[in-house]
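Entry 12.
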Amino acid sequence: MSSEEGLSSTITDWLFFSSWWLLLPFIMLLVVVAFIVAFVLLLYMISPLISPKPLKLNGAHVVVTGGSSGIGKSIAMECYRQGAFITLVARDESKLVQAKKEVEKCAINDKQVVLCISVDVSKDYGQVESVIKQCQEKLGPVDMLVNCAGTSFSGKFEEVEVERFRSLMEVNYLGSVYPTRAVITTMKERRMGRIMFISSQAGQIGLFGYTAYSPSKFALRGLAESLQMEMKPYNIYVTVAYPPDTDTPGLAEENRTKPLETRLISETSGVTQPEQVAKIIVKDAVQGNFNSSVGPDGYMLSALTCGMSPVTSITEGLQQIVTMGLFRTIALFYLGSFDSIVRRCMIQREQAKAADKRE
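Predicted 3D structure (tokens):
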């Protein structure tokens, strides 16, 4: 072989290896992409295997506290449309009678029954336990408990009566603890059941005017996470629902005292109808999903605040991991706009006070 041929061969080999090293990053990228695609497909394939078995509502006994109006009544109607037997629990007997008539119109067969019991679920655990035993004797063991009894209130921290902090915690938190304690033993014995807590988007993010209300709804999240870890081995699944502002009598009552800042912040997300909220919440509870959110804002908040909350499937966890950074970026813009609203209102009040003094 001549020196020229040897040089040519060396150059050819060098170009080959150089081109290989140039292509290596692209090849590695393709391998990584292929691995990710395969991993995602695998997650979708195995997720149904680890997800809880859906609860069949046809013939099931569903207890709804706070079921005489609002979201509670809409949930009862949605469950009744799917063949469930319903126990409505609330304080006002006249409202319960009217709610019973509305729920009964949603019947799909002649065997369904709506039972009404008047009791304050936040005051005396003994009474609540007695009520639950009474309804189970008539309609059988409770398959799903919907803790919807609650009340809302908004006002500036220093203007809210101290008694209001206690009453909201009693109704919104203990009003869910007591019924849950009353049904959980039977559910564990039967190795099945659903427990639903109706929180609020104000139970995911603290906002101006909700210093009394938000903590009582945040508390439900801690209860639900702890309870789910205890109950999962018994095939009992807990769902926490975070509905947005919903067109209910409770919202109308809250709006009477709502500060300007709170109202302006709330208007950024609009008002949802209780029937829409009920459909989503019931579907999530039946599936055994831990989080139940409504609309794009609700989905974003649930992903942002998921923390150490349980997931129903690996796919759900993957979605939270992928979207967390993007949603946090969007959330910073929301928080900035909320702070801007609060500052503008404060400046307007100070200017109005200064004008009054000059006059």
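Annotation: The CA atoms of residues 2 and 87 lie 98 Å apart. The longest strand covers residues 236-242.
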